[in-house]
Amino acid sequence: MTDRIDAGVDRRSVLGSLAGAGTIVVSGCAGDQAERAGADEPSDPAEGSTGRVAESTDSDTVAMDADTLDELAARFAPTLYFDAAESWYPTDPRPYITEEGGETVVDGFNAFDGYHERYDEDGAPPDPTVFYHGVRYAESPLAVVQFWLYSAFDQFTANFHWHDWEVLHVFVDLDTGEPQLYVASSHSRSVPNNEFLDPDPDRVPRILTELGSHSSTLSVNEIPDGFQRVGGDGLLADITNATIDTVEDLLGVPIAYGLPRDEGMRLPFVVPEYEGAPVYDHPDLPSVTAESLVDETLTVRSLDALSSPPTDLPLRETGVAFRHREREDPEAADTAETVVEYDLVETTELEDITAFTGPQLSFEFAVPEAVEDAVASHITTTGVPWEQPRYEDPAVDVSAGNHRADLADRYEAVGDRAGIGDGAADAFDGLVARVTAADESDEAPDGEGLSVTESAVESVVLIESDPKMVPTFGGVAVAAGVPEGEHRITVNGAGRTPHSERLRVENGEATVAGVDGDIPLVAREDATRVEIGEAAGEAELERTALEDDFAGRIYDSAVDGSDAVYVHASGAYTAEVRDAAAEVGAYRVNPAVEDAGAGTGSPIRIERPETGATSLAGFVADIAEETRAEVAAAAAGDGDENGDDDDSETASGGDAGGPSNAVTGLERALAAAVDAAERAEARAREGDAPGVNQQLDAVADRIARIEERLAAARNGLPPGLAAATENRMAQATRRVEQARTGSL
């Protein structure tokens, strides 16, 4: 501790504007990301944090001259804008101090209940206070004044806890008096902060506080209470964080948490529970009621309580603004319904507090597993600011690599460590993904194909093996500082079934989760469950994947012998399995055919899956027969409609009789492929390698004939079925090639 001496939109628009400007910056995250002690996670690994603490490359800091610190604190004291539904404003924790075991602590029950008791009595936020702290880097003109904000409680979509600390760092050059960088804290050390380089020295810093969680973003442009991720229409962007190119569809998205509810995203809040009941029912919280929490129009009892993602959640609206008591702010008065004046108090007056305590509150994630879903708990605790590395070395909280590089260029005191930004992809020990939505495709046959679309509702990602939780922003999930090794991630969303996958993170490279960065979730009302493998299975499974006929590969994960995946009941899938010997097997999964659609409660089970030619040939027979049956139904329907009994050409499989005869010819070609594939499967089971290859050659010939017949029959088929037949035969061709090289 330093002794006091006198000496922080539409994603497609984002992509278009930045790509048009040629803005491509490599994504990454430094090892020092793990050192960032977020408000939601303790900084000391011994106290529950599993993040790695990197050795600082920054110069030591010393205490700032008292008069200079007070002057800078008064000059840069931010104006804070809060959501109209906010309950927990920045306050002074000292009224809730108790002595426990000879130590001074702030108890969670005391603070939570006491805050609401006083709020109800006064009709106004009690003790509005912002705390400040400052340091200067030794032998450098670079100094930092920090503004620390304490709230009595934190309620978020999958995260709630007693106490909450957020911070704004203002980096200032003492020689010029110019601010160099603003860094506003987001949820935790795993989530990129909201940062702005070279802010206007004549504009008061503004913070937009996220409802419930109090994550802070910046407002530096002409709209005081609105967040702009990317500049446009004459407005300056509110962040200058680097962009990302790790996932193709995310090219150009500045990596910072931002303010999702101000960017058009829906964000449901979960009612916090303690000992199985809502916290407001606890007898030790008599002043806390249901109305004390985030408004019920924004909350759900649990993420799995809804059958579909919520679409009617209100977006952000500004309510109260906080301004420094000794400085007028007409802009705040013109913008907010109510303006509250806060006191500035130095953090040294709090440093005798050794802990912010309270019983642990956990959030339970649903985790798909074979037989039945499991539950994983995420527990969040709050550290003491003056025991965190960033209290003495604020540069460790700079998450954007472009900002750290700029500071390092300007000041020798700042070490040039990689971060999320220029040249940093090689040092990114984290995960990147985009959470999307799986929906029925208009281009597929009814109930037999998907499209993947953007999600309008945010989700949460749990890295179970670390463990840490990160919320998405604009559907993007970034988890920094993930240690090297095997991990399992689970994604939960309101009204959606869970997704889980296993992957490996390597030091020195970015890890993209999902399939090419996409993790499509399924609405609960549309979902069915696929269970793959059992302990008694012949193949020792190491990996599974699912491909939809139209959306392509939507799931791919390492497994430990078995797997369970929620899929959209209106999709038609190829399930791929791989064993320890890298042999491949495939199985057809079509909920519409197997009468296992949404709401049936019947999972689709692939028991004792096999790999090799037997499985692959059997798959080709199944997908060809499924398609043949649909083509036959289309031909019968067309014949009934037209009364066409002319079969003069269908006997030879020709198409001279028009589209209906061509469709019949297509059906016969498919039937021939089924027959050849079944023969190949039989030869494989007999161990007849020459016979297998001979029959696989026949299958390939039949598929070529199908493609010819499809070209002639296309006008006689429903458009969706024609496209499905083409896609399925491409899938069958792949599997024939795998069967040629696989074992029997």
TrEMBL record:
Acidic residues biased stretches:
638-649
- Lineage: superkingdom: Archaea
Q: Which residues form a coiled coil?
A: 663-742
Keyword annotations: Coiled coil
Region (Disordered) residue spans:
32-59, 631-662
- The molecule here is called Uncharacterized protein
Organism encoding this protein = Halorubrum laminariae
